[in-house]
Amino acid sequence: MRHGTKKWMGSRDVGYFFIAVLILSIVMVFFVLGNEEGTDSPSRLRQVHFSGVCQTEENGKEMPLNENTLRKLGACRELILTGHFDGAVSANEQIFMYLRRVDVEVFQNDFLICSYGRENLTVPLLKSGGNVWIDFYAQGISPEDEIKIRFYNPYPANTKQVYSLFLNRLYVGDKMTLFLKMLQAHSFSTTAAIMIFLMGMVLIIVATTMQCMGMAGMKSLMRFGHLMAVCGLWTLIDFCYISLISFNPVAWDALESLLYIAMPVLALLYIRDYMVTPGKKVMEFFIYVVLFIDIAYIVLQGLGVLDGELIQEGFRIVLPIIFVFAAAALFYEVRLCRDKITMAVLGSALLFTFFAGIGRSWYVSTGNYSVDIFNFGFCIFIFVQYGVVLVRAKAAYKRAREAKHMERELAENKIAMMVSQIQPHFLYNSISCIRELCLSNPEKAYDALAQLSHFLRGNMDSLSSSAPIPFTRELRHVKNYLALEQLRFEELLQVDYQLEITEFYIPALTLQPLVENAVRYGIRRKTGGGTVFISTREEKNNIVITVSDTGVGFDVKQKEMAGDDKTHIGMMNVRERLVRQCNGTMEVNSVPGEGTVVNIYIPKT
What we know:
- The protein is 58% helix and 17% strand.
- The protein has three domains: 45-173, Jelly Rolls, CATH 2.60.120; 188-392, Up-down Bundle (Rhopdopsin 7-helix transmembrane proteins), CATH 1.20.1070; 423-603, Histidine kinase-like ATPase, C-terminal domain (Heat Shock Protein 90), CATH 3.30.565.10.
- The protein is built from 18 helices and 17 strands.
- Strand 14 (530-538) and strand 15 (542-549) form a beta hairpin.
- The protein is an alpha+beta fold.
- It has helices at residues 11-33, 67-73, 162-168, 175-185, 187-212, 219-236, 239-242, 249-272, 279-302, 308-336, 340-366, 371-422, 424-440, 442-463, 471-489, 511-523, 556-562, 565-582, and strands spanning 45-47, 50-56, 63-64, 78-85, 94-100, 103-108, 111-116, 131-137, 147-152, 170-173, 469-470, 493-499, 505-506, 530-538, 542-549, 585-591, 595-603.
């Protein structure tokens, strides 16, 4: 028979799992992005350019429309562009414009042809329609037509390139073709996002399954899986293409915001599990800070009390502070850390924090979200964690296998103990004595048979008990055993009880095997017999049970070296049950020719 457990999930299986997810992610992305035919075809999609002048509502001064001018103006509150398209737009063609949390009105020769903003929303207190592609059909536009575009930006903290993004994303043509073009333009981040999301979901499934199987240490693995899934989903919600296939851009914007402010919580929770220094308290403080912001966002935005974008603006101010203190706490922890796995986790987290800080600084200075910088740091973090996952999965499987092995050994010991408790020779001798008594003293034989029945039943009940039992019940079992032995040895076996306390609990079959050893290997081998003493007393922290005899005794060291399993299997099982069920201990002292003393110490509860 092959011993062992069925291998469900080892480190190699986890590795194959992630490789399969990686291949699946790449295949899915290239399947979506592979159809390049027609995405650059002028008949299906073409980019149009706008040239002219710009002016703000504040000074009304016209300025040349170029990147330098827009960079200087930044995210100004109101802006008017006046000029012309570089090509004609037919009456049946669809025009696409990308807006990032701004309202817009488009005029053709002073006639309003498109308007999008707060009046299009049903959510209270929202100041803009979020990140969204808008589209409309004009009645034909020629290069000579004057086009006026009026913007209103309700958020001062909007990206500085809000208007440049608009001008660089003017298209005419087919919506699906535009969607594929945007998807291809962001293929790297899309691939990474899908891969990270799927790997996170796999981790969650693996951690949940392993936790259901009783494997310990899955909490941090589960948290990392949630972090990966949230980060992947957040990266995947790219408004450059998602709003082209979405019917509710505000809902996507709200989801993106929730994921954005949830990521720091999950990251800090995961990293905190590996920290032991006072820096752990710093992490916990910021976890509560970010959780407060998350709850405020959900409640205030959900009840229509406050525009959630304003809460995000406050969060973007708090986030760099969190980066600085988290990096300091991580640096301090890494310096003191001696465990290689913990050092790898915290070191990669420190790198991730560094790159996230660079990405944030880049946004503050340029107005551009540097998703690639963020993804680079996060990929380093993920690959390190992937190695950690393999190591921890292997360790968890090893622990589970060892636990199964120990469980099997305990079961085998229990079977061996059951066999030893049946004691064929003891039963044969007892039945022989009872048979003789049936002829000479039927009443005594009747009592002896009842004691034998009670003894055997006590054995079976004790073997099925996994929790401590009352001491009086164990004592009754011992008395049944001794009564049967006294049938054989009569005056050669004496018993003395000195019980100061009996109201306590003890693991089943703790006292009886000790008494049995005293009779079989102590009293029975001594000429003239002897006495077995059973006593209990109460100390300050323990209850002490003593089983002693005046038998032949033995050399404890020689007995341990000999490893006499038949003699001491009961003693070994007693020790295991004492430790497992009540954290008790046992000590054995014996002197050859004088006898043996066994003390059991049971802590008071």
